[in-house]
Structure formats: C-alpha cells, structure tokens
Amino acid sequence: MEKKYRIRFMLLILFYVVVLAFLLVNIINNPIKEIISLAVVIVIMMLMQAIFLYNNYLKDTKAKTIDELGYHIRKVGSNTFNNFPVAILVYNDKYVVEWVNYYTRKLLGTKIVGKHLSDLDTTLFEKLSLNEYTVEMANKIFDVVHFPLYRTLYLIDVTEREQKIRHFERTQLAVGYLVVDNLEDAVRDLPEQRRYLFLGRVNTMIMQYANENNIFLKSYGEGRFLLLMEYQVLQKMMANKFDILSRIRKVSEQFDSTLTISIGISFNQKNLISLSDKALEALELTQSRGGDQVCVIIGEKAIRFYGGKSNIVEKRNRVRARVVAEELHELI
C-alpha cells in the first residue's frame, strides 16, 4: 500500500514540474496571458494536492481505526478468554493438563498444569467418553462440555442453579397417614384408668416424634393421623428406619399390649390428590403385611418397607389375624 501511494505522489510531482516548465517557457513570449494561465494552473494544482492529501488522511485514519479496533478486540478476547466465568482445560494425549485459563486457576488453584485429569477429579476423568456431564469439584458443581477432538474441557459453574434445584427437591411435600393398629383389641382388657394412661402415652409419643422431625400432624379420628412433611424430613426418617415403630412397641410391652402402628407415605406424585391416594395405598400395603411397619411410595414404582418382623414375604392377612396369632401363641 505504501509503495502504491509513493508512486502516485511521484507522478503528481512530475506532472507539476512539467506544467510549470511549460508555463515558464510560454511566459517569456506572452507574459500577461501566461501569468493568468499560471495562476489558474496553480489553483488547480493546489486543489489536486488538497484532494490527494485528504484521501491520504482518510486512508490513514481508516487504517488507524482498524488497528485500534483490532487491538481492542484482541484485548477484549484475551480478557474474556481468561476472566469469563468458564474454566478451560486443555490436556494432551496422556490426559495431562497442558494449559488452563486464569479462571481455572482462580477456582482450582495454581498448580494444575502438569497434573493428570484423574488427580483433579475422578469423575471428571472417568466420564471423558461423554460430551456433556456434571461433576462436583472444589465445593462447586460444574456442567462439563467436552471437545475430544481438541482435547479441551469447558467447566461451567452451575452451583447456584443446582443448589436451588436441590433445595426445591428437599422441600417438596410428602403426605402420610398413621394408624394405630388393633386399637380396640389392644386396650380391651386394660382397666379404664390404665387404658387412658396407655393411650395418652402413645398419643404423646406420636406428637413428640412429629415435633422432633418438623412434621405437621393432624388427628382425623381415634388413632388416625394425617402427616405432612418435607422430603428432607422423610429422608431423615428413612435413614433412622422410622424408630417411632420401636418406641411404640416398647410402650406397648410395658402395658402388656399388642398395640402397634402402621404408616403409609407418598412422595413425588403429580399432584396433591395423587399424593394422598398413594399414601393411603401405602398404608393399605403395610396393613396387608401385618402392620407394625412403614411403607413409602416414591414416584410410580419405588416402594420401600421399614420395620415389621414379616417385611420380607408379603402376606395377605390383616392386622386382626396377626393379633389373634400372637394371643394364641401366648395362650399356648
């Protein structure tokens, strides 16, 4: 480009020299006429020079603008590549990290380059056959986008999103029904005062259990309760194997009674009506298995049983049959 401008400039100067030489030669013969012609030519030459200089100015300005824009783009690109909240890891054919951006160092530490991917995180390495997956590293959760062709991993921090999802799951509603098994038979032979003491203790124990676990408890009949709880509460109860069963059983033994409880709980259904229906279905399952246990239905298929000595083989006998069998055994 500079050579092209130089040639144009030299041609313009040569043109000026030729024109001036021609005019000087003619001024000698006709001074007045040629002076006028010379003035006109000078004005034209000045205009041509101005146009030439202006064009050069425009081209220089454009080139400068392009250079500045390119520099700005490179600077922004470099800044984005290093500081954009996406961790970037490049590894070699031996799965050793060769390069990371600044954000990766900020998240995972500075001593990453040279490490094997499995040393950074086992799941990160084991799922390399996938193009997209999720890992938990450095107390954060990442969506990983993998480009095997370029041996590059992009780790997008989705911790806040996942925490909100998990919080939503933990606080979803679970519905349950608790029923005192064989209530009439269990207290039939007890003296009236002892009967009230026994039932009062059972009800108190059930309410205490509800308070301990932040369960909404509502009685809807004698020995019948509605339970409302969050899923995280249900998880805790499942982890503790519903120890309310053993508590009630111990109290019953103290009063020489066969009283037990059955609980049916439902979670992860499409609406509240389905939750209630599935909880009643779970309660029916516990009683068909002899009572003294808990049935939890999660979703459409997952059914879990807790407690009860007969929870391995399902029976069709009702709670009454179990009570009679126990009484017969005691008599024998």
Tell me what you see in this structure.
The protein is of the alpha+beta class. It is 56% helix and 20% strand. The longest helix is centred in the N-terminal third of the chain and has 53 residues, at 31-83. The radius of gyration is 44 Å and the shape is rod-shaped. Residues 310-318 have low confidence and may be disordered.
Compute the gyration radius: what is it?
Answer: 44 Å
Low-pLDDT runs of 5+ residues are 310-318
β-strand number:
11
Strand order of the largest sheet: 7-8-6-9-10-11
Main structural class: alpha+beta
Helical segment count: 12
Please trace the helix and strand order, writing H or E for each element: HHEEHHHEEEHEHHEEHHEHEEH
Strand content: 15-25%
CATH topology of the largest domain, by name, is Alpha-Beta Plaits
CATH class of the largest domain: Alpha Beta
Which CATH-level-2 architecture of the largest domain?
A: 2-Layer Sandwich
| Helicity range | 55-70%
Query: How far is it from the N-terminal to the C-terminal residue, by CA?
Result: 115 Å
| Mean residue pLDDT | 79
CATH homology superfamily name of the largest domain: Reverse transcriptase/Diguanylate cyclase domain
> Describe the biggest sheet?
6 strands, mixed
Shape: rod-shaped
Number of domains: 3
Tags for this model:
12 helices, 11 strands, five-stranded antiparallel β-sheet, 332 residues, Alpha-Beta Plaits, alpha+beta, Beta-Lactamase
In short:
The protein is of the alpha+beta class and 332 residues long.
Helices and strands, with pairings:
Elements: H1 2-29, H2 31-83, E1 86-91, E2 97-100, H3 102-108, H4 117-120, H5 122-126, E3 132-137, E4 140-147, E5 152-157, H6 159-170, E6 173-180, H7 183-187, H8 192-212, E7 216-221, E8 224-230, H9 231-239, H10 244-254, E9 261-267, H11 272-288, E10 294-298, E11 302-306, H12 319-331
Parallel strand pairs: 9-10
Antiparallel strand pairs: 1-2, 1-5, 3-4, 4-5, 6-8, 6-9, 7-8, 10-11
Helix pairs in contact: 1-2, 8-10
